[in-house]
Amino acid sequence: MITGSKHKPESIVKMKFIHSGKIISEETKKRMSEAQKRIGNKPPIRINNEHHSWKDDMACYGSKHTWIYRRFGQANKCENREEQILNFKCRNKTNTFEWCNISGNYIRERSDWLKLCRSCHRLMDMTEEKMNKALKALKKAQQTLHEGQFKKGQIPWNVKYITFNNKTQSITTWAKKLGINHTALLWRLKNWELERALTTPNRYA
Length: 205
Hints:
Structural class: mainly alpha
Oligomer: single chain
Helix content: 40-55%
């Protein structure tokens, strides 16, 4: 039985790259497609669990939003603005619209999603737990540094107010009183004693 001659290694490489970078016209692509259809070859369309990369509930946050976008298109309105369906009214603050999940389980059904403006989306996502966490962080960020708590070079990043000589003012107010800017006063607090930092006026004024 004659099986034919074997190709040389260099010939195999040439055959492999002979069509590399070759531009095929749209007309040729169309003819190739029609030829494949005539002989019964159709490209398989695999979606959802038929696709080899399907992860179902294990998919990430972005993938689930991409799924709803591809199935039902881009969010182009606020459903809470047209008719109040949430426990608050739309504030008409923005015309940027987003898909918002209702249950938090990201079920792949249209009934589990809403089209909302960005403002309504943020308010809907702000649960009681998140609200309490945000208020706690805000309270911590506005803490006051009292005279007895001050240590040279150790000013916390979240200090907004300073109490000195029984007077509590924001760092910005102290800076204006001294005729310097906010950054300059922060430098003083990190490098000077508190009394010197809050009593020495701007020497260039």
